[in-house]
């Protein structure tokens, strides 16, 4: 079983910066990030995983100004620093194929892989936030299909550049005076629909051959890109039944693409809230949600139900809703959530404005039970954990859930290898230009 | 007096990887880089300065395969890692305005500045290597004038993005629930000849306001860009008289651009070879040059004299040369060098193939004398030191030259401040959208 930590400096939950004991300044305080990464490494996590976004203004200002998620370190700047203060944990950075250049991305991830002795991973995203385009000279977001075709070609160029040098190209023959062997250098000369890139890369082949490829696309095009290229799929959270369907679909797509399905790891994101008792965990979540400003939660609720919720009585249950064309399934999800936990309009707004994806809320034993069930029932190969609050939520997970998983023989008690590929049980890719 | 270290993992000299005691694998061995940076910090250097190039194939293969300078870490990936293992030394990364995107560069340098608590600097280059264009979908290098106009606009966008947030924008008011003050956020909305960038940046204003701006352009356009924007100018080495002329020119240009000339520091690059005696230093340089392969040196010599040198007797003095239109001044420089040091064709070839810029070769006292003369005669405000060999050349500089400069009261004995601006005596720029 594999565990990634899906990190935001103050967690993904928009109220978490106000939680007792939180570090509200963590977005730009490296000391805190270092502490988190080192604790995760003590917990033998496979990877520290950093999300990324290329714009700010994608929420109404009323909500935006109350959220700590608005700014943070650039992942490809943060992770090298974390590499220098950790030894084993993998380091996965998100980078966009829509707004970056393949030559630059290839050398940055290759450099990170060398710096970290083989611990780099690249989360390929095509960037769905439409506002990002405005920061890159474009009037509007590129079409979804174009984004994914560009993403596929981007991947081909980057992996081709990583293969510029054979693993044994650098002779460093001090006596003879030859630094490298020109016969072990390949000039890519890529010409495609979106890119023309000559190469070679001015960085040696990465320690891992290629950094680990991660992908989180949900659409058909996204799944297909993942099936063809990804080694880790970061699935959106859902029920076990949905998870199993996604798991089967992805493994089948990988096989159809001629790959070994075992080399595609499915790690759904899950939001974890830990308590000594179930009640304590639920209270903790309620406290967390209560820290979301009602006005900003209302915006999320209105979007989710496809209907302006600002006139509703905040302390009453959700009134009967007119049908919505915009988001039938979104509306149903909210209705189910309200029914299951008897939530008022205020609670629902705060839940949706905070974090509304799948959550595991309970004692360490209960959380381990759920994780075990997902693994045993082929719902996933592990999880990308989102901590409810930092630092305590992370410390509790490493201190209480990890030992429980270890006791059950589900999770490593020490790193067996040194690279992220070692941790994930992934093979080192051969060099397409210099076969073994 | 200010000291930067102009670093390549195995020095700028193409024979240095073969020097006794060198680390031939340093290009991708972070342990060595960490050692260098920490030693420089013990020596109170202002900054660790990392060059950058965006292509490999800009030399004939005969020379290329013998040079360790062909590949190395991406600077913006290396420097965050060095930030995590140092406390005070400045960290200057080279980044190209011709091939990068301003939104990405703004957030990377801002992130580095936050990570390092205010130690970032950006060496703005327009990238003169024509091969780089081929890695970015272009058939040929952009015109020199266009490169510099794009560079100037790029700078405007990046500094504008750094000013997206007032220094006090982030309230982090846990009680009231407001993370930032929308009135202290500026949307840039830049529309120019080369870029359209809405903003705001998704990173808080850098610790230093703006990272320190460095520039090394030599042409008129390059000098003008530096006069308008740079705070450190990395001058090419030359004689003291040339240095004085450059110094005067740059200070005057800065004043003409309405700036305080004291806020533009001129730091020529100089290659330093240290010995216990002058003879020892000269022998060391001769040994270093002898490690350059004759064939690769010949290519450099032929270019410098504008004439194929492969038919010359390697062990004789340079024969009389036919006049060259291509490089009259280059030819004269070689003739002067040959006469001054009685160099044979082989020596000249190896000197030019190794490192042929201005060098300080001698005892620590002699080197301190020369540096003192440059400072006192207004030839520079300090130096960007290129070490002859690593690690010994760096250790010798920090262990022998720095103490001599300190004894003379020319160089600090401890860092007085914490940021690169503090070290350089540069003011923190105000925010153009939120004046104090
Ligand atoms: C758990 C998870 C994390 C994600 N992280 C990012 C991210 O950091 N940056 C980003 O631009 N998109 C991120 N995405 C969005 C996906 O890359 C993708 O755009 C989204 O799932 C929609 O799928 P589609 O692009 O296939 O339509 C994430 C998605 C999921 C499910
Ligand atoms: C000491 C020194 C270091 C330089 N370092 C770099 C570098 O790392 N990357 C780069 O592309 N250019 C570098 N340059 C080149 C300059 O940016 C500039 O292109 C060159 O001096 C020619 O001047 P011009 O561009 O004004 O014509 C350097 C120049 C000097 C003098």
Question: What labels describe this entry?
Answer:
ten-stranded parallel sheet, binds flavin mononucleotide, alpha/beta, TIM Barrel, 14 strands, 14 helices, 436 residues
Largest sheet entry of chain A? 10 strands, parallel
Strand runs of chain A, count: 14
Name of the CATH class of chain A: Alpha Beta
Helix proportion of chain A: 25-40%
The chain pair with the largest interface is:
A-B, 73 and 73 residues
Oligomer: homodimer
Under CATH, the topology of chain A can be stated as TIM Barrel
Separation, N- and C-terminal Cα atoms of chain A: 30 Å
Q: Flag low-confidence runs of chain A.
A: none
Which series of helices and strands of chain A comes N to C? EHEHHEHEHEEEEEHEHEEHHHHEHEHH
Q: Which descriptor suits the 3D outline of chain A?
A: globular
Mean pLDDT of chain A: 94
**Strand pairing plus helix content of chain A: what structural class?**
alpha/beta
Per DSSP, the total helix count of chain A is 14
Instruction: Give me the Rg of chain A, rounded.
Output: 22 Å
Task: Tell me which CATH architecture of chain A applies here.
Answer: Alpha-Beta Barrel
Count of discrete structural domains of chain A: 1
Looking across the biggest beta sheet of chain A, what order are the strands in?
Answer: 11-10-9-4-3-2-1-14-12-13
Query: What would you give as the CATH superfamily of chain A?
Result: Luciferase-like domain
* Ligand inventory: flavin mononucleotide
Strand fraction band of chain A?
5-15%
């Amino acid at each position: 079983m594999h565990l990634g930590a899906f990190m935001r400096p103050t967690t993904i939950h928009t109220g978490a910066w106000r939680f007792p004991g939180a570090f509200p300044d963590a977005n730009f305080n490296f000391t805190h990030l270092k502490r988190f990464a080192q604790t995760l490494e003590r917990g033998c996590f496979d990877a520290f995983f950093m999300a990324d976004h290329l714009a700010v203004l994608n929420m109404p200002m009323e909500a935006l100004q109350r959220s700590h998620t608005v700014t943070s370190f650039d992942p490809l700047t943060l992770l090298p620093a974390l590499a220098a203060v950790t030894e084993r944990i993998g380091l996965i950075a998100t980078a966009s194929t829509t707004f970056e250049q393949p030559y630059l991305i290839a050398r940055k991830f290759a450099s990170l892989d060398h710096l970290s002795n083989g611990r780099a991973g690249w989360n390929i995203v095509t960037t769905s936030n439409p506002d990002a385009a405005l920061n890159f000279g474009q009037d509007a977001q590129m079409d979804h299909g174009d984004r994914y075709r560009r993403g596929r070609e981007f991947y081909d160029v980057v992996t081709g550049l990583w293969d510029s040098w054979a693993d044994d190209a650098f002779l460093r023959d001090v006596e003879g005076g030859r630094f490298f062997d020109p016969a072990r250098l390949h000039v890519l000369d890529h010409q495609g629909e979106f890119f023309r890139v000559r190469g070679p890369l001015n960085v040696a082949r990465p320690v891992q051959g290629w950094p680990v490829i991660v992908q989180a696309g949900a659409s058909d095009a996204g799944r297909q890109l993942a099936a063809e290229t990804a080694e880790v799929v970061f699935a959106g959270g859902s029920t076990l039944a949905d998870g199993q369907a996604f798991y089967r679909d992805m493994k089948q797509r990988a096989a159809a693409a001629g790959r070994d399905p075992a080399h595609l790891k499915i790690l759904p994101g899950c939001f974890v809230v830990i308590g000594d008792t179930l009640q304590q965990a639920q209270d903790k979540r309620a406290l967390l949600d209560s820290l979301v400003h009602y006005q900003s939660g209302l915006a999320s609720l209105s979007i989710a139900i496809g209907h302006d919720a600002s006139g509703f009585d905040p302390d009453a249950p959700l009134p009967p809703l007119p049908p919505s064309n915009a988001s039938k399934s979104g509306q149903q999800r909210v209705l189910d959530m309200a029914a299951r936990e008897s939530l008022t309009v205020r609670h629902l707004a705060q839940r949706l404005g905070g974090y509304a994806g799948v959550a595991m809320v309970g004692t360490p034993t209960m959380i381990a039970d759920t994780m075990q069930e997902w693994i045993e029932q082929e719902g996933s190969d592990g999880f990308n954990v989102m901590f409810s609050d930092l630092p305590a939520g992370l410390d509790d997970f490493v201190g209480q859930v990890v030992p429980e998983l270890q006791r059950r023989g589900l999770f490593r008690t020490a790193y067996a290898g040194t690279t992220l590929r070692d941790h994930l049980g992934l093979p080192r890719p051969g060099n397409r230009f210099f076969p073994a």
